[in-house]
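User: Sequence recovery, please. Input:
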């Protein structure tokens, strides 16, 4: 028996990066794992290595699809809103479509996921949003992304007050630049626009973290598992920076 035996966790954006690592970590902790995403192939690759885990497709920006996702998943105890995306452009060159797209997946998608999870809780529950240090500070050239992540942090802080008198908590995890596929795309973008080498581009991103290294997905997973463990009942409404120092 492990701490999460008998509990079911639903993880959006579960096919790659942090989401895939969360799936593996919660499965190892004894939870029943359901992962969701827009593309079935990477989801199936993850669950193939996790006996009993399930993969469901869902676009978290679509209210009806999110409702269907939870109906298919069945009652869940832990909801991790991890699905997200990032683009980079100067503010003056950011289109309204770019802005709306970033808010749709990073903020509205998190809202829809957590709201549906909250609606189906019948007792103990954990709501976790994977935000970013961009939800705690500014970064140049990602204004829509940072605005969305700031919105996630504000939503979590408000939601935490609503659930504070019951057995549910709501928290945000705010990693710095991660060693994931999303960062790989950022590295490629820096290389294209600045002419830097891959090592130089990666070092530039790592330098934004106080420890001057990229955060590993397993560090985010460890924090999420802690929020679900005994002794973390009083951790509610927090935006936990996972960045190696003060943000």
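Assistant: Recovered sequence (247 residues):
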């Amino acid at each position: 028996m492990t701490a999460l035996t008998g509990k079911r966790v639903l993880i959006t954006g579960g096919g790659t990066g942090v989401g895939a690592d969360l799936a593996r970590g919660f499965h190892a902790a004894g939870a029943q794992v359901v992962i969701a995403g827009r593309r079935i192939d990477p989801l199936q690759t993850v669950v193939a290595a996790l006996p009993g885990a399930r993969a469901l497709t869902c676009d978290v920006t679509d209210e009806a699809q999110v409702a269907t996702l939870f109906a298919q998943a069945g009652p869940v105890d832990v909801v991790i809103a991890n699905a997200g995306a990032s683009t980079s452009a100067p503010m003056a060159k950011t289109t309204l479509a770019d802005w709306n797209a970033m808010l749709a997946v990073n903020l509205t998608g998190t809202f829809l996921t957590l709201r549906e999870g909250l609606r189906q809780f019948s007792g103990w529950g954990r709501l976790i949003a994977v935000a970013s240090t961009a939800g705690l500070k500014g970064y140049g050239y990602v204004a829509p992304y940072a605005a969305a992540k700031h919105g996630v942090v504000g939503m979590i802080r408000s939601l935490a007050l609503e659930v504070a008198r019951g057995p549910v908590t709501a928290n945000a995890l705010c990693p710095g630049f991660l060693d994931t596929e999303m960062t790989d795309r950022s590295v490629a973008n820096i290389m294209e626009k600045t002419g830097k080498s891959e090592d130089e581009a990666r070092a530039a991103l790592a330098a934004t973290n106080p420890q001057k290294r990229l955060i590993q997905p397993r560090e985010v997973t460890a924090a999420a598992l802690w929020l679900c463990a005994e002794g973390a009942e009083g951790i509610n409404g927090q935006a936990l920076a996972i960045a190696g120092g003060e943000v």
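The chain has two domains: 8-176+216-242, 178-214.
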